[in-house]
Write a structure and sequence with these properties.
InterPro entries: Tn3_Tnp_DDE_dom. The protein is mainly alpha-helical.
Length: 187
């Protein structure tokens, strides 16, 4: 292990080199402090002046101001589109194990995924449609969204991602948000 890390067998030699580097760095920083107008010592305490913000580039101001070419993304619609490509919504099955599917279940699941991922609760996703009523949201949340179905949906998404040529160029089909168990769940 030491050889693969290019470390000496004796820790003292390595620690002495690290201590010398740290001491040199401290001395270099301390030598520059008197000329730095952003640093002030007051009653033996070190204070840093507040930094002024960088001006915001025009490229950021235009989309925010509206009227730009970029259309706002409707997150539930984007999820429904991903569901149509991947079938990931089919992984959310009832805890009872029954095959009966609720009408427009994919709409309810998309709304719940938005509610959970944005941490906003049900209120912003409640709507007039039956699939978006409070009772339906609560029922589906309690009986369809659980660790096993999150894992199954993630597996479908990862499988579909792996078939995308650009994702293949980037490398592993394991998303960076995955834990060591290979799943990501917002609960």
């Amino acid at each position: 292990m030491l050889a693969s890390l290019n470390l000496p067998a004796e820790a003292g030699e390595h620690l002495a080199a690290r201590a010398a580097l740290l001491d040199g760095t401290y001395r270099e920083v301390a030598a520059r402090m008197p000329a730095n107008s952003q640093i002030v010592f007051d009653d033996g305490r070190l204070h840093f002046a507040a930094l002024e913000p960088e001006p915001e580039p025009a490229s950021l101001r235009q989309p925010r101001g509206g009227g730009g070419d970029a259309a706002p993304v409707d997150l539930p619609e984007a999820l429904l589109e991903v569901f149509s490509w991947t079938g990931a919504d089919q992984a959310f099955t009832s805890v009872t194990g029954g095959e009966a599917r609720l009408k427009d279940l994919h709409v309810t699941i998309a709304a719940l995924l938005v509610a959970h991922s944005c941490n906003v609760g049900y209120t912003p996703v409640i709507g007039a449609a039956d699939a978006l009523k409070y009772g339906r949201l609560s029922h589906v949340d309690q009986t369809y969204l659980r660790p096993a179905t999150w894992r199954a949906a993630n597996a479908k998404l990862i499988h579909c991602q792996a078939s995308i040529p650009l994702a293949q160029v980037w490398g592993s089909s394991t998303p960076s948000c995955c834990s060591t168990r290979g799943t990501w769940m917002p609960r």
